[in-house]
Predict the structure.
Amino acid sequence: MSLEMRGIARKLRMAMVGGGPGSFIGPIHRIAAELDGQIELVAGAFSSDARRSLEAATRYGIAPSRAYPDYEALLERERCRPDSADLIAIVTPNHLHFPVAAAALQRGYHVISDKPATATLEEAEALANLVAESEGLYALTYTYTGYPMIRQARAMCAAGELGRIRKVVVEYVQGWLSQPVEASDQKQAAWRTDPGRAGIGGCIGDIGVHAFNLVEFVTGERISKLCADLSAIVDGRRLDDDCNLLVRLSGGAPGVIHTTQIAAGERNGLAICVFGEKGSLSWAQENPNVLNVSWPDRPVQTFHAGATYLAASAAGASRLPPGHPEGYLEAFANLYRDFAAAIRARETGNSEGCELVNDIAVGVRSMRFVEVAVAASREGRGWVTIS
Ligand SMILES: NC(=O)c1ccc[n+]([C@@H]2O[C@H](COP(=O)([O-])OP(=O)(O)OC[C@H]3O[C@@H](n4cnc5c(N)ncnc54)[C@H](O)[C@@H]3O)[C@@H](O)[C@H]2O)c1
């Protein structure tokens, strides 16, 4: 008797495109997807090389018959099986996000894709149309929206605890592209600095979109205008590796987004500060279980992940009591748990947690941000409205 017939929700079955040997984010997706026992990885086209796809499947404990040589074979052959994959995780370089997501949605699979949604705005808009027509759901893995303290920050802004927002500052500082490592055998750098595989944005498409998304996710406002100065600092690089942007929020507040990948020695320094009329909050990804809120008339308040006093969305995103470090993997797992809830909500009607899923509208907005910023910087246009 199947689990469904006994009234027990079975695990959702996931297939992965990308995530082959030596890749960065594919293995993170697998761990995150499986962390809560809601999803299992059952198949994949893990590489453009069939032998390496098989090698990855062996490592993941997947039957060789479900290690496919390419994504078309995966999507076609899986749907003929009684135990077909339900959702497709896309963890390839950016230029494949659109064709894989489009093909999967057209066949009715659910899709969870890493960012950026696509390589161009045009593709993102086309994908939005496909999502609207498909039986399948779509989600983007904007990792940082899965952190408990980011959800706490969002809840506090939404409740008006900081008062009207006056200013936002996000910095995202990395150093791993401070030398022309793409010229050596650094595969991650090679495709990220190649417009054919990364899209029109370098740093702006790789980590600038995280900063953009974080501003909108935490404040609940939209970035309505920007003034961008993007540079390729490393000699010979064809895409930007350093981005400085002034922005305006829909509520009128000014903001600063500064992202770079050439800050020699820096690691993954993402941080956000929101300054409101009544108080100011700050969070840093390298110390993610703490959220500090400063008030003019009392001592700084420090919130800890896992504590009992958190907003429901933040408490639900913590798995451990305070003082037990949680981090990147758990934040990623929260995105998968929310998406699993959204898929199950179609049958159960219980949509708790689903509202935090980053959908295709978020993807389109972030691709519009990339396109506007790249064009505005290149043409020295000054302030430009993001429609
Ligand atoms: N959410 C985040 O914080 C985050 C972090 C890192 C990367 N990413 C995104 O994840 C994606 C992958 O990044 P990465 O750093 O893991 O890259 P990577 O180069 O480490 O891995 C890419 C994988 O895709 C595979 N691949 C390439 N072409 C393929 C094809 N035609 N069919 C199947 N597999 C194919 C490669 O073999 C490799 O295994 C990118 O879009 C990137 O922007 C997101």
Summary: The pocket of nicotinamide-adenine-dinucleotide is lined by residues 17-20, 23-26, 45, 47-48, 71, 91-94, 96, 114-115, 141, 143, 187-188, 191, 206 (CB under 6 Å). The CA atoms of residues 94 and 198 lie 5 Å apart. The first strand starts at residue 12 and ends at 18.
